[in-house]
Amino acid sequence: MLDGRIPLSNNLSEIAVKPVAITRKNSLFSDSVAGAEASAIVFSIINTAAANNLDPYKYLHYIFCQLPNINFASNPCLLEEYLPWAEKVQVQCKATTTETTPKEEKTSESA
Fold it and tell me: How far apart are the first and last CA of the chain?
């Protein structure tokens, strides 16, 4: 325990694994294999969007509005344009951070 590079707690590891544990626990309530598979697909889409710095709600809204209007059955390459890392998707669905600046903090404290 003399190595200063080793963290004293495993909080970061616990935080990283928590969504997996919660999903596993929630999967116990699936009524069928098809329902569990659908849930896994939705969780995968949401987590992939978040991993690509997208707002998951905006991304789901975007693909649910756009995909029904294209004929990707005849041209599967069109789906590439709707993946989370596509440039157009990044512009449309980018997650916004709501960090306060020091100036905003002073204004709220004085009120």
Answer: 48
